[in-house]
Amino acid sequence: MDQSAIEITGLRKTYASGHEALKGIDLTIPKGSIFGLLGPNGAGKSTLINILAGLVLKSSGNVKIWGFDQDINPRQSRASIGVMPQELNLDPFFTPRGAMEMQAGLYGVPKAERRTDQILEIIGLADKGDAYARSLSGGMRRRLLLGKALVHAPNVLVLDEPTAGVDIELRNMLWENVRKLNEQGMTIILTTHYLEEAEEMCDEIAIINHGEKVAQDTTQNLLGRVDAKTLLITPSEGDPSTIDLPQGVEMSVRDGGQIAFSYNRKTTPADAVLDAVRAAGVKIADVRTEEADLEEVFLALTKSA
Description:
The protein has 305 residues and is of the alpha/beta class. It has ten helices and 14 strands. It has two domains: 4-223, Rossmann fold (3-Layer(aba) Sandwich), CATH 3.40.50; 228-304, Alpha-Beta Plaits. The chain has helices at 45-52, 74-79, 96-106, 116-122, 138-150, 168-183, 195-201, 219-223, 270-279, 294-304; strands spanning 4-14, 20-30, 34-38, 60-65, 68-69, 81-84, 156-160, 187-191, 204-209, 212-218, 228-237, 250-253, 259-264, 283-290. It has a six-stranded mixed β-sheet, with helices on both faces. Strands 2-1-4-5 form a four-stranded antiparallel β-sheet. A hairpin with a 2-residue loop joins strand 4 and strand 5. One of its GO terms (molecular function) is ATP binding.
């Protein structure tokens, strides 16, 4: 059995203007994963998502969604994926129930198999099912976009910047629902500018830049790629300003009096930092280390690309 939810090989897209948005992307997304698709503005993420959704035609390459080749089985391929777009593109004269029923009809879901009330409950709009969309708050409209993406029970759900500009309550509700859907077997693809979200939510991450994939790995392995490390020391006595720092080590003082030493773990051992602290007569009450976060990895990879 194919273990890939999505297989992309040699994907290219050149627009009529001559802009090459995707330059031969190869990407495999495992079934059942929460997969992060990251990249700076203009990297090609939206083009890639729109190709998956069937909204943009690729120039060349191959795309399979849930085992269905987009060229050979376009309807099955399209039915296997649901997309929650970034833009709030809702008809103001439809109610949430009406919008979801219309969406289900477009996907050919028989009336007996529609789960409109169940989905309204999931997204927290059960009491707003018959209110006009124009009367909903921005957060409620974003929930409705998620509901519309779920009406045909897709195997793969794409969330395009789902928490951009939303409050903490809605963000927490969304992630709670995403985790539940993932536990039920749905594959989730997430694009976000909030890197702490990707670090917390995603099993695996791909980073694209200038239309090319610059990295793909598990979240933990990506975090391990950056050589920067921080040693945090809480001094009990002594003057930190007298510390003779080893070459390449930077020092800063944080709130609460903690001293942060940033260094490259490939060139500087932690012992060298600790020895310099002790040599200055600074006594250590507590010590701990900080690993790189996803933002550092992201910046390092996109800069090198």
